[in-house]
Amino acid sequence: MAFASIYVPHFLVQSVVRAEPALRERAVVLVDGNPLLEKVVAMSDAAARAGIQLNMTKSQATQFSGIEIRSRSRAQEKATHAALLDLGWSVSPRVEDTALDTIVLDLAGLASLFHADENIADELLRRAATLGLLVNVAISSNLEAATHAARGFPGVTIISPGEEAQRLGCMPIGVLSPSLEVLETLERWGVRTCAELAALPLLQLSERLGQEGVRLHELARGASRRSLVLAEPLICFEEEMPLDYAVAELEPLAFLLGRLLDQLCARLTARSLAASAIRLRFDLERSSENNSQFLDGKSSGEPALGVYEKVLNLPVPMRNSKMLLRLLRLQLQANPPKASIVKIYLAADPARQRFAQGGLFLPSSPDPEKLELTIARLTNLVGDSHIGSPELVDTHRPGEFRMNRFTPSRDESLKNRKSSKPATGLRAFRPSLPLKVELREGYPARISFRGMRGEVVAASGPWRTSGDWWQEDPWQHDEWDLEIHFRFSPAIHLEHISTPCPQRGLYRIFYDSLRGNWFMRGIYD
Amino acid sequence: MAQNLAALRAKIEFDLRGRASAPFDYHERKFAETAYIGIPEIDYWTGGLPRGGFTEICGLPCSGRTSFLLSALASRTAHAEVCVLVDGSDNFDPHSAQAAGVELKQLLWVRCRNIDQALRATDLLLQGRGFGLIALDLGDMPPQTVRHVPLNAWFRFRRSVENTQTIFVVLDQEPNAKTCASLVLRLGSEAARWSTTIETHTADSFVHPSAWLLDGVDVRAEVLRSRIQQAAVEGFHRGFASASIGGDTGIFETKAIWNDPGNLLFESKSKGLKKQG
Fold first, then answer.
1. A425–B96 C-beta distance less than 8 A
2. Domain range for A68
3. N or C: less crowded end of chain B, CB within 10 Å?
4. CB pairs under 8 A between A and B
5. Are residues A196 and A307 in the same domain?
6. One digit per residue, pLDDT tens: chain B, 277 residues?
7. Residue partners of B186: CB distance under 8 A and separation at least 6
8. Please, what are the domains in chain B?
9. Domain count across chain A
10. Does the beta-carbon distance from A425 to B67 stay under 8 Å?
11. Is the predicted ipTM greater than 0.90, yes or no?
């Protein structure tokens, strides 16, 4: 049995750098605390070499050139920790959530997949890099030895069984996390490494340092035993990013959203999942001019922070970050937030990846992801209610239908359905055109509409329909099919643009008994 | 001289790299694959609508364009293809479409308010790829408006649909696409057909209008231009038993949806003898 421990050095700094990869090569300093009293709480190695020290004030840190100062972000630390766990679960189903910056994996059963421990370690490093993390990996048959080796040694450390004490010997005892008092005592004794601690007699050590001394002695020898405490797999994929400055424009916002989506999709990929919906939430800047937009009605004395929320439901589970970004951009262009954004929150509803079995004899169809993007662009162009697939409503009201979301089927049963003979198509007028009708013995004889006047040469009707008398909008129509001859074929003057009309035509008109008017429903074409 | 030509050719190919592959190579025109639209007369004459090609159907209102379009949509959706209708004037009637056999779940209907929206929507859809049929219905747009569509727009549509399996159909009142269209048909209505339940010698729709039913329309179709290879057309002719039409025109019949026994839309209609006031 072997264990792999993954440790993220400079965890606080890496949490911030993960969202801004450009900072990875720079000297980064994190500050935290109340404004004006912010102090340095973490720094990268480059910043330490430049002379930055912990607990330095922010104003002192700004005196150094070439330093990038960022605020500590607990939201990003939480997201980074979640990404670390996703990394573990992508390799092994048994993961221990040891600390915010450390996890331990049980490698049992992975030999058949990866063959050698070195391969496992390399794969962990590679997958961590895709998640934006630089990690240390240590593999040992002793759980505690692996954990401390990952914390103590950079890069990959592989400890063969029985060599724990020898490999941990040169590690400083500070890595074992002793209490401050014990650490000071050991330093006074001149004990600085694990080998020196392991060389001390156990009985005398326990007399002077108690149980903690015994524990440290076992850890230094790599002899400590404990069981793995398994963590529950998280089904939560969230990323947050508080912004130092409010963002008001779409382009920089899209850049930030792209980064968050890259991280989110990398985590989904690590767990072999995809997103069925993306939830977006912006915290908006407090506006002194438009407080009425954000007041929540409670007498808090201050206007509430505005919130912008959007849910992007996907027709098929996706994890292509570029495609998701395009869809979000289209949504934001159509419905932009009303104030500048100070915080971004992004979450994905996980779902199993889509597996589509193609057929040799099925016709080609649009790629679902591309189709979704095309429909989103068309929606921006014509409006949400003007695009979709029509569905007839179960009613006798003429012309009733509803627009549904377009989800084409690849149903084999559709193929080879016997199509009807060519039917006479009707072009509908929306809304129905008002007419003037001259009657002869109760039947339409002449029709006038849109500047045209024609004689009815053949008529069929009336065909009465009525319904919904129990509702607020009942209808009662007498419909006619008419063949109309236009004598002079005048041009129709429609919005000052002339258009020719046919010499004769077939029209469907109806008399609305409730409104007492004639209308044209459509033209047969 | 030959060396100079070779050097010049190499320089031009180098300058065009990444934008045009093999600009001096001769590209043989591919044999056009066609798809039937379910109107035997049209399929006989044209060999079907070309895939990867631009078809223009022109005619005045009441000339049979919509019947043609619905038949094409019904034929393609029956083969589980995804179809799109870009409706320039929002005139599409889902009821008559379903009665004509169109599988509405396979149809994406884009309802536009003006020609600009219609052209932009068509651009987006042609770039999206994968559709079996894309129809742009400008049939109710004033001809002056459609004439002002620049030729490069039609050319762009043609280039977008080339080398794809998509059938692109445009409906308008007069031919506008010029040489960009591979197939241009002009439709015109002939006589309407009415059927009656009473004796013909007393038949007068004005005496007994409730005894008459619209039976359908005869539509005349004229092929104005066709670039579909003759072999494709002849191949279809060999499989077609009857050929009762001559010349470049033909007449096909449409049937009013009264005659479709599967149409439930009109089951509840009742004959009203009440006079209208």
1. yes
2. 3-90+107-161
3. N
4. 285
5. no
6. 777 888 888 888 888 877 766 677 665 555 568 888 888 888 877 888 999 999 999 999 889 999 999 999 999 998 889 999 999 999 999 999 999 999 999 999 999 999 999 999 999 999 988 899 999 999 999 999 999 999 999 999 999 998 889 999 999 999 998 888 989 999 988 778 888 876 655 555 556 667 788 888 888 888 888 876 554 455 444 433 333 334 456 666 666 654 433 332 222 222 222 222 3
7. B58, B59, B175, B221, B222, B224
8. 30-186+223-240 (3.40.50.300)
9. 4
10. yes
11. no
